[in-house]
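README: folding subset

This subset contains proteins for which both the sequence and a predicted structure token string are available. Records are stored as plain text. Below is the entry for Transcription termination/antitermination protein NusG (181 residues), shown exactly as it appears on disk.
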Amino acid sequence: MESAEKLWYVLHTYSGYENKVKTNLESRVSSMNMDNYIFRVIVPEEEETKTKDGKAKTEMIKTFPGYVLVEMVMTDESWFVVRNTPGVTGFVGSHGGGSKPSPLLPEEVAKILHEMGMSTQRANLTFEVGETVSIIGGAFSGLEGKIIDNDADKQKLRVTTTMFDREVTAEVDYDQVDKLA
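--- output ---
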């Protein structure tokens, strides 16, 4: 059963090799022309601030050591490419014997990505500062806004919009806006 749907899967890796697996998989995607099947590769991590010798030090710690998330369309080819990436020991939710793994539930993905300050939608759109967009989600839904800042890495925009005859600035995710036709 091949799915043409982009879904999130969890890879099991050797602990400590999560970032290496991410790098290896991203280069394999490019070299093996899998860009239309394998999209984002994420190592879930969060900032942790520790105080040592009276100095605060912020570092990134792995939320799920030994695991990497991958957004992909599951086909025999994409499954093979991911499974055979150095450092990957297998998919979580695969029952062996050549069975395809189960994807994460959308709400699980949303929670993990939200905690990392990322959006669940990978907008294939590009947004330009100065462009006007329609806000379709969040507190400013139904309004139009002009983009004043674009953080493509975090998939967030800062837009100005008018509410109650006042100009206000809002931060919105890519998946909360639509381009105007």
